[in-house]
Each structure stands twice: as C-alpha cells, then as structure tokens.
Amino acid sequence: MQPQLLNLQHSKAIVHLDGDSFFTSVEQSIKPYLKGKPVVTGKERGIIACASYEAKALGVARGVTLREALRICPDLTVLPSDYETYSLYSKRMFEIMRRYTPVVEEYSIDEGFIDLTGLRRIFRTSYEEIAMRIQRDINRELDITVSVGLSLSKGLAKLGSKFRKPHGFTSIDGLGINAFLEKTPLKKVWGFGHNTVNLLEKHGLKTALDFVVKPEQWVEHLLGKTGHEIWNELRGNSVNPVNTQEKSSYYTISKCKTFTSPSSDRDFIWAKLVRNLESAFIKLRRHKLRVRAIAVALRLQDFHQDGFEARLNRPTTSIYEVIPVVRGMFENLYKPGKEYRATMVVLGKLENDDTRQYEFFEDRLRIETFEAVSRAIDETNRRYGKHTLSLGMSLYLDKHRHTDRDDTPCRKACLLPGETKRQRLNIPRLMLSV
DNA sequence: TCTGGGGTCCTAGGACCC
DNA sequence: TCTGGGGTCCTAGGACCC
Fold first, then answer.
1. Sign of the alpha-carbon dihedral angle for A69, A75, A81, A85
2. Which of A42, A66, A144, A149 could bridge to A161 as Cys pair (CB 3.0-4.6 Å)?
C-alpha cells in the first residue's frame, strides 16, 4: 500500500542531529587520555547520567547506580557532571549549524533540528551532502561525534538519527518511507510512550507502518490531536515546523530532591523543603521571572505523594514572602511517624520580572528590602558557591514553630484579599505527577 | 527496572455567564 | 422549582520527552 501522495512542491528537508553520548563525549574531547576508555558521568548523584560507548559495551547503562557500575567494570572512570562545559559545547554545536541556516531548533542540550529546505541551490549540492558537511564540521571542530537523520519531517528525521549510532547518517526519502517504517516498532516512534503503544497493540498494530496505513479518522478518533500529528509526520507530511524561537522562558520551575535515606524527622524534612525552595528561587531570579503560584509536595516511601498549591496575590521574586505560606502547607501535609523520601517544590504562573507595579497599599519599602536582600544573596552565592548563604531554617535550626500574626507583611502579601489562611490551605488538591 | 530530576502539551469537565 | 442552549476560562491529571 502506498500511504502518501506527496506534494513535492511542499516537501521539506529536515535534519535531526543527535550528540552521541554527549556528556562523556565532551569529557573525552577535553581529556583525550580518556578516549577509548569506559567513562561515565553522574558522580554527584551516585547514578549514571551518561555512559561512553566503551562503558555501554561493558554493560554500564544510564540510570544504573554507581556501585553497580563499578562492580561490572572496576576500571570505570567516574566523573561529576559538568553542565557548564556541556552547555558551552552545545552552544558551539548550534553555532556551527547556524552557519548553514538560521532555521535551527535547539531541542535539547544535545539535539537539534535544521530545516534545509531550499538550500540545495545555494550550496549547489544535495541535501545529503549539506547534512554530512554539518556533521563533519562538528566532528572536526569540537572533536565529538553526532548522528544525523535527514527526511521530510521532524518525526522521520528523528527516527533516522537514532537508526545508526554513533556517528551515523541516515536519509529517508519519500520512496523509502514505507520500507523504513516497516522495520520500526511502535515504541521507537517519537511521541509514543508506554500507554499509546499498549493501546495500538491492542488494535493489532506492531510497526510504524501498520500505524501509518490506518485511516486518518481512525487515528484522530483514537489518539486525538497529538496522534494525528505523528501520523502526518510519519507519512512525510511535515506539520510540526522547526521552531527557531529561543526557549528563554519557563512555565514552571520545579525542584525535587530524594533523601539519601527516608526520614520521618519533621525538622529535617522542613529543612530539605526550604533548601529546594531556595534553589527554585535562585533559578527564578536568574531567569528574571517572578512567581504567582507555589505547589509543595511530600513523597512518601511508597511513592505516593500529596501536596498543596497556593496562589499568591502578588507575584514575587523573594523567598521571604512565601516562607509563611509554604510553612503552612508543610504543617498540613506532614504526618508524624510517616516515612518520607523526597520533597518537591513547583513554582508556577511565572511572569517576566521586567515591570514592577505596586498597589498603593503595599509596603513598598519592605518589598524592596526583601528584593535587595535576595540580590545580595545571589551575588554572594555566585561568587562563593551555591547555598553559601542560605536561610537559617534550611540549616535544620528551626526549633521554634512558626507563629502566625496577622500583621506580618509576608502574610499580607501572600494571601488573596479577604481570604484566611485556613481557607486557602485546607483545600487538599493533589497535584504534581512525576 | 521497584522509580533521578526537570520540563511541555493536551484534554475533559467544572464554574460561571448570558 | 425545573428547564434550554451556548460560550469562555480554568484546572487537574494524563502522557511524553530529554
């Protein structure tokens, strides 16, 4: 069966470029004596974040604990993740891509899409050759390898780049689509997770080709908009354009930290929560954002979790303004005697912090003081290391229970007008699905 | 596989309004 | 008190991704 009637006038040439074991490749590029050796990153967490191909060959994979990895491979070189350096390499990688066209999407630190459509004439060569040149440039200039897929849509290009790794190149043209999809199991398709694959398998499908030959209505009805989009992309019909917009802003900022061993100690858990909150606010200010809603959750040992969400009546960048509300949520959540294994904080309803508006009844001096203190702390921590300066509370020193007084500026700033704390905090809304 | 951490997008259904 | 129809906005939660 021929699923597609391509309109070649509109057919695109999309490249997906995927760094091979990016973190460890960068490490091996900087430290050439590590080349050819099994290397992993993730020392700081005790879990493998990235494994070099040499390590993978020995059976050391992402997500394995360090202890297990060292058992499998005693010669393993274990490095802490150095995001600053990886980001620098990433930046240079995207600069190389942009030498060819500005239509580049920074999909993640080590993955990008490039729309080459229309560039054959300019470079007087085929799309394949242009894509391979980019691949060679990166290899030569950065001394890391990338795998490349070239096809008619992002969805197909992404399948291509995964097909041969490392240092692979795979081009899927219109006539080759069916043959390629026939070899592609559903779970490899970008956008199909566990649940979708299970659902499709119940309907008797096994390969991406099985999916693509289904009628459009059938797909739309079963999987909705997202599924319909994937169906189009896999048929070579590009409906998901290469997005050149810089992803500068966030919708949410979250921090989640698992304890090394579960705890039921109220002060300890509170201290951990505050520490997460501090990290989240540091990130918030670094991106020049302010927050309007805060969610807090505690994860139990059985991996269940519950949490509260609070809406602030005024957006803020200062942790001092939200501590009382967070404390209130914590007191409602924490159940003595239960074993907890993680705390989570989500800052939501973020907005740009470029304009500053005060309502006339707000204590302007007070707010500005909070912000000045925050700035000073950011600066100190930037110079001397994260959490050099932090709230006393997070140092496990908070022995006295938080006392509520109606005239505290924090309270005033954090609650909606006419709302009491009890009203706000007793609404047990479960949020966060991690 | 007993589960790390940080994100985005879509959708059904409720609240509220005319 | 029950009854219509239609629109918008918001939210919780599901599903996926790197």
1. negative
2. A149
- Chain B: positions less than 7 Å from a protein CB are 1-12
Peptide bond into A166 cis (omega under 30): yes
Mean pLDDT of A40-59: 90
Q: What percent of chain A has pLDDT over 90?
A: 58
The residue type of A141 is E
Give the side-chain half-sphere CA count within 13 A for A277.
28
Q: Give the C-alpha distances (Å, rounded to integers) separating A159 from A15, A231, A320, A349, A384.
A: 11, 14, 48, 35, 44
Looking at chain A, the domain(s) classified CATH 3.30.1490.100 span 253-396
User: Per CATH, is A8-19+86-234 categorized as 3.30.70.270?
Assistant: yes
A311 CB inside 7 Å of strand B: no
- What CATH superfamily classification does A253-396 receive? DNA polymerase, Y-family, little finger domain (3.30.1490.100)
Asked whether strand B has any atom less than 7 Å from the CB of A423, the reply is no
CATH 3.30.70.270 in chain A, residue ranges: 8-19+86-234
**Phi, psi (5° rounding) for residue A258?**
-90, 140
Q: Longest C-alpha distance within chain A, in Å?
A: 74
Give pLDDT tens digits for A226-239.
999 999 999 999 99
State how far the Cα of A401 lies from the Cα of A415, in Å rounded to an integer. Answer: 20
The residue among A400 and A103 whose pLDDT is bigger is A103
**Among A401, A425, A386, A411, which residue's Cα sits nearest to residue A281?**
A386
Mean local confidence (pLDDT), A237-266: 88
Partnered with residue A257 across adjacent β-strands are: A343
- 10 Å CB burial of residue A210 (0-12, 13-18, 19+) is middle
SS3 at position A99: coil
Interval A341-393: pLDDT, tens: 899 999 998 888 775 555 445 566 666 776 777 777 666 666 666 665 656 56
Give, in Å, how far the C1' of B16 lies from the CA of A219. Answer: 34
Phi, psi angle pair for A298, to nearest 5°: -115, 135
**What local confidence, expressed as pLDDT, does residue A226 receive?**
92
Question: Can you give the distance from the CA of residue A294 to the C1' of nucleotide C16 in angstroms?
Answer: 24
